[in-house]
Structure formats: C-alpha cells, structure tokens
Amino acid sequence: MADPTPGAQVVSRVSRVLKVVAEHPGGVSAAAVAHATGLTRPTAHRLLTSLAAEGFVDHDPGAARWFLGPELYLLGSLAADRYDVTEAARESVRALAAETGESAFFSARRGSETVCLVREEGSFPIRSFVLYEGVRFPLGVASAGLALLSYLPDDEIDAYLAGSPLEERWGLQHSASAVRERIALTRETGYAVNPALVLEGSWGMGAAVFDAAGRPGWALSLTGVESRFRPDRQAELGRLLLEHAHRVTARLRGGSPSHR
Questions:
Q1: Which one, 154, 173, 202, 220, has least CB within 10 Å?
Q2: Which run of H or E residues covers position 191?
Q3: Residue 7: what are its φ and ψ, rounded to 5°?
C-alpha cells in the first residue's frame, strides 16, 4: 500500500540519520549510521551526501566521519528564541554538580524519548559517561526517562509500555512489569533511580520538571559510580534533585521558585 503522504518515508529517514549524527559529537561513520538507523549502507551514504550538499552535515574524508553541519547551527539559533529552555535549568545543573560532586544533566522529552541538553561535570574524579549532550534514550530507560514516564497519566503509560519493545532492546530489567515496579517506587519517593541498568556500575537518579499544564516535559538527573549512590546517600541526592526540579519548573512557568 502506497504511503498516503508523498515523501514521508524520506523525511523519516533523514530525521533518523540526523539524530544518529547528533548523538556522536566526535563524528560517526556511514556504516555506524546505517546500523543505527536500520538503513542499508548505500542508502545511508546517499542521504548523508545529500544532507552535506545542503550544509546539514559535514564530512571529514580523512577520518571518514560525519558531523552536524553549519546550516543546522543557523536554524537552531533561529529556533532558540522559541524553544530554548536550557537557560532556565543551567543554574540548577551547575549547582547540582557542585553540591554533589556528580555529573549533572538536564534532558527534554521529545515524543517517546529523552534528549540530553545540558551536562555539567562534578568534582568526583571517577565519572560515568552514559549521558552527554545529544544522546537519546527511550522513556523508562535511564533515570531521566523513568522520571518522565512515571508522571504521565496511567493510560499513556499503559499505551507506551504496550507498544514499546524495551525488553527486546534493553533486557529483562526493562520488561513492562519491571518498569512498572520502578514507576511505583518513583511515585512513592518523587525521584527515579537507575541502578546500573544501562551500563554496569553506572548509577543515576532523576526528577521530573513540569510544564505550565502540569505535564512532565524535562528532567534533572545525576549519574556516577555505584559507590556514590548507596541507599544512605540516595535520600539526600533525591532531596536536592526535587528541590532543583521545583526551581526549574517555577522558572519555566515564569513564577517564583519559592512558591509551590
């Protein structure tokens, strides 16, 4: 059956390619793009070449790597006036890193994914490198995505878990029942905990930030090694995350962070 929207498949493919390139600030090969998007290598290379001709990606022939291009920077600059929310969160991200010594992050929800927008390194010398600007995870995966998913309405959670093969990609710990257990715990404490489910030894905690309608749209999170996220410290880290999540929510709503 023909696609009812002419060109929709091409747009979808281009979007997937750009997202993969964005997840690799150090550049990515055409073969890696093909693997990540499920496209054939010739198709991936053809799309990358076409995007390069328009300035949306850059190619380093010597390294055989592709990067985001200058045209995206220009378009992003124009869109920033309407969509950039990072300034409302940057102060809290820096404060969380300074107060805890861990790496702190601000992520946004985009459909069924989270996208890391801001990263600030803490002072603790051993770090986790699971999160960095541009990386995406499905909702329910990593602490930011779990925090966001936990505060969606129950019917939206049900529909998402029924249609998302998290277990297939991320293992048994991301089965629908396992995710639901973590959602229940997140709702009980107010903050999400990722006990090294994405990368062995790398723990994370996150708290949702809400929009003017009360829906979870962003999240603050911390990541680090397991020894820094022992149960006796989680309560303090959770308190700080919730405190700053409230502040960012108030800033995004244009209100005072001192009023709940």
A1: 154
A2: none
A3: 85, -5
